[in-house]
Amino acid sequence: MYRVVSFGTRLEDSHSAKVRRALQETGAVVVGESRSDSGRYQVAGLTVSTDHGIDTLRTAVAPLASDGTGIAVVPPALLGEGTKLLIMDVDSTLIKQEVIELLAAHAGREAEVAAVTESAMRGELDFAQSLHARVAVLAGLAEGVIEDVGTRIELSEGAEHLIEAFLEAGHVVAVVSGGFSQILEPLAARLNLTHAKANELGVDAGTLTGSVIGPVVDRAEKERCLRAWSEAAGIPLERTIAVGDGANDLDMLAAAGLGVAFNAKPAVRAAADVAVNFPYLDVVRHFVRL
């Protein structure tokens, strides 16, 4: 059985009818349906039985997705019993901002750094090289700017609800970030996350050095964390969901049982299994049996 989930801020009955018809044209049989309204967005789900694989279903419904309405075809492993793992990127996914840009604003270099970040997230620059270049502009800033930026962080809409729902159901929630541990660690503790990993900013005598300590958390490391944390918890990759927005998330999204692009760059939307193009992160809870 598969679950086909349509979601949008305004989900018309005609859209659900088109999804049903597209599935039936592949020979799939609809055996159940549901609908919910959070007050911010609506979700309609169809449970289907088919002799074809998931690619056939995704190809059938893909033309019905738009900027306002997304469609997720969820594989059986995420709909059954067993512990699941949710792993998320942080900047522009778990939180609304890019932390490096907030830090760079203290050096009067926000616009410059934002342009490099945008290019890196589109996959146009090597992530590690771009990170070192962006962090270099922070050299000389007082360490206290980190605490200041931490107070300005805003979670994405529905992020806490999503995390609480997964944790209360006994699942594993992790984040892995190309950002910085000095910002992530207190946030991870507040949210009771199971795992969290990010880069460490160099600090010497209360001043940022403009360097990153140790190997950079890049796209390969994000995938490695997904595999390591799922293996440690005894969770097969088929029962994992990865959520991200940039090119450095692509390997993680591809390795997970379901890869979700959240308000992502075009290349990431094209590669992911699901594209969420509105600001409500908690819609991800509808893609799995909790």
From TrEMBL:
Pfam families: HAD. Its EC number is 3.1.3.3. Keywords: Amino-acid biosynthesis, Hydrolase, Magnesium, Metal-binding, Serine biosynthesis. GO terms for biological process: L-serine biosynthetic process. It comes from the Bacteria. The active site is at residues 89, 91. Its cofactor is Mg(2+). One of its GO terms (molecular function) is L-phosphoserine phosphatase activity. It is an enzyme of class 3 (hydrolase). Belongs to the HAD-like hydrolase superfamily. SerB family. This is phosphoserine phosphatase.
